[in-house]
Batch of 3 targets.
Target 1
Amino acid sequence: MNDLRFPLHFTWGVATSAYQIEGAALEDGRGPSIWDTFCHTPGKIIDGASGDVACEHYHRLEEDLDLIRSLGVSAYRFSVSWPRVQPDGSGEFNERGLAFYDRLVDGLLARGLEAHVTLYHWDLPQALQDAGGWGTRETVQHFVRYAQTVATRLGDRVRSIATLNEPWCSAVLGHETGEHAPGLRDRALSRQVAHHLLLAHGMALQAMRASGVRAELGIVLNLNPAYAASDAPEDLRAATLFDGHFNRFYLDPLLRGHYPADILEDLGADAPRVQPGDLEIIRQPLDFLGINYYSRTLVSASGNARPEDAQYTDMGWEVYPDGLRDLLLRLDREYDLPPVFITENGAAYADRLEGGRVRDPERVAYLRAHLAAVRSALEAGVKVKGYFAWSLMDNFEWAWGYTKRFGLVYVDYATQRRVVKESGEWYGSLVRGLEPVG
Ligand code: IFM
């Protein structure tokens, strides 16, 4: 039996984000973002690297678009760099930056590929951070203007526009643990930031719809299902709390119009300040929900557990494809779920270029197993419309710099040569309908 048959019009894509691949950090009027500042602060990035050059995608656009086409996929998910199109986040827009994304979208269309845009994949203009960043409501207003401008410019040629990528990461990694830009450590601030991000999403959706933007509009969440390590009441409670902070804190306001009561109680004085009307704004109808899934967490009251017999990726993340199926079924059961795109899924492994080839059977196995999970959720009736592998090519993996490789395409950073890995060939053959059985 072939467990990887998908509906005819299923969208097959690859994904990237601006700061991770573009480079050209100081060119054509781009302003600095919080990630430029963070990377250039000693000790923040494991290999001391930055996105200054990254994959030079900004200068290799045509070659990279040909590469996407050559893989055989039908869609490309990318993000717009806010500081490239509006250098200080609140003033003039930068025509040269906007023109780059025009060329990107037109280049995709010319190659028969769908464009899926993300407006915010973590690169806040530094000038806005200097004025308080996502901790202030002013940033929300600036985001709405930015979103409306980009969506009006590109919205007639792109299939979808997501407001935010993974607000949990911006809020928690950026403002509670300090692992990501802007590197702050303040739990109350992190939850206020989460609220402002969600509010920015809701207001931007309203503004884009009011401007007649035709693309499908939604948001992308990274969801991490929590499994209790045992049936002990304290482990069950710990898993519920983990799920609440990680998943429900974003799903509930977006899809139900309220924050989860148990998590507000757990936060106590660190709960966000919410103004009247905010939650109605956040709960906008979604044309789609983007889900990024990489792994699960096994939770116990004494700390997160690591199953010994499991396989792990180079990030140390457990390979757990059943978690994706369970997650999709649960969301479908518990929420009034809009159509779903799996907007990211993939794995880092320590790939090596040898004799002109990159053999990455673990990544093929990872993708195959997760696609089988998606297929099984589809069969159970969940409306999954497409799947994007993370990532098109190896790139700047945030605090891990260039030490982690997620690509279907290997990047030799010394020469910027791209080499399609065996997983890229496998994914292409699957997408073309030539998935070998057995
Ligand atoms: O590289 C990131 C991406 O930017 C957001 N989602 C997770 C990926 C892997 O860590």
Target 2
Amino acid sequence: MDYLKKMYLESIGIDYLPGGMPPSIEQGSDTATEFATLQELRDEIGDCRRCPLSKDRHHIVFGVGNPDADLVFVGEAPGRDEDDQGEPFVGKAGQLLTKIISAMGFSRGDVYICNVIKCRPPDNRDPLPAEIEMCEPFVKEQLRIIKPRAICALGSFASQTLLKSEIKISRLRGQFHDYYGVPLMPTYHPSYLLRNPNAKRDVWEDIKKVMELLDLPLSRHENS
Ligand code: URA
């Protein structure tokens, strides 16, 4: 995996290879300009009218949390509660995500939480390809600015979009994948867990791998 190769090369002091180094998060951006801070990127998005989702939205749901987070959670798109409040993952699924974050020993303010799509699709329909094309550069730029040590992609939409993959979430989850040199763990979306509580066990296995990677203590949460 590229991120392991890169970590190894850096650990032995190598930052140049004749054939080129593995891709880094700096290459993950698609925006015409690179922004120094999340606020500068948010200012650029402004009162976005780039796609038809802007017509019915109440708030652009940009993202919340620590701009220097070691861990970023990326979901799909805001739902009704998020559109009302302007904050990602504040509805029922969000409450479950908050519990997962607490079980890791974090608060919401320690990590960063955002979505691939920043405006609510009507009736929670899947985002359309043109909407993804317009909005995806912003999540990529958020990840480039934050440069987390790990990313957790929630559900098939976020995982497949970031990894440019069509593989099912049930096969993607459970192992790290490379996102421009950053280890990315796909796992089930909290909304899926609300409908399928048995899958919580799998998510906890995925989360434990993330905790291990981030050197977070596991033992006190083992029985959660
Ligand atoms: N589902 C998502 O993918 N994101 C949110 O912010 C809320 C629900």
Target 3
Amino acid sequence: MCKKIGNHNRILKMSVVLVVHGGAWAIPDELAPASVDGVKAAARHGSSVLKSGRSALDAVEAAVRALEDNTVFNAGHGATLNIDGEVELDAIIMDGRTLASGAVSCVKNIANPVSLARAVMEKTSHVMLAGIGANQFAESIGVNTVPTDKLVTEYEKKKWEEHKKYIAGVMEAFNTKWSHDTVGAVAVDCAGNVACATSTGGIRNKMVGRVGDSPLIGCGGYADNSSGAVSCTGHGESILKVTLARLILSHVEQGRSVADASQLSLQHMGDRVQGAGGAIVVSPSGQWAATFTTERMAWAAAEDDVLWFGLNPKERLKEKLSQ
Ligand code: GLY
């Protein structure tokens, strides 16, 4: 909580809020405890950045880096493999103050694509760099590369081999045990500024060069101080078709709560293109929601001194943030 002086010298209490997700999919029981622990740790980390007085943008980057570094999630370390057994990563970051945004897609050998996306935003006149161009830019600004082997887990190698025997990756229905999706964060800081960040390895066994929703502005994420910030997760091809992040914020702009806006938009994606997924949203006044239409989504929200978290539909558990 922070305090601002409003009209007539009234003290307004503003909540600083940070929400993270670790991907909406049918998370198997074997990954459930580590997924919940991972989102809780990332929310605590991002919240400590916010509480130290830094911006929502700094906080979402820090939270997503923590999720990218955690091998239980499909982003950075732990990312899924494409059809050639390679890691191709996508990420976006967006600043609600100015609508500045940076993204990378199909980038290789980068442990924290969210920070490379931020560098695209801050050090170039572009919004997105793809493939070899993104890697060349990373080299030009001195970002360390990591061998693919360092990003790939034994779990992913095993799942990739099993999956190859069944069906071609991106054609399958999303809500199955084969998907393994995306991380993200949204935040509002003391000044009422919002930001979002999303990062992913995409879909297991995807075609080489396939780009999903995550790095595309208005699809995998959007942030605007006039309405809020969103990070999406789920079947990329479906999210792209309904521009899910902007769809949610357009409902907020029409006066709906962030929870209703998320529910309506995900419902629309299910009805219109039979896609499942999830979203986290925060408004400039500190309203927040974590919503999904898949079997599960690991999420956590740091608000005042409470850490909310969940995995299953309608689950909303809480514990003290400062433990
Ligand atoms: N939602 C991540 C992807 O489909 O690539």
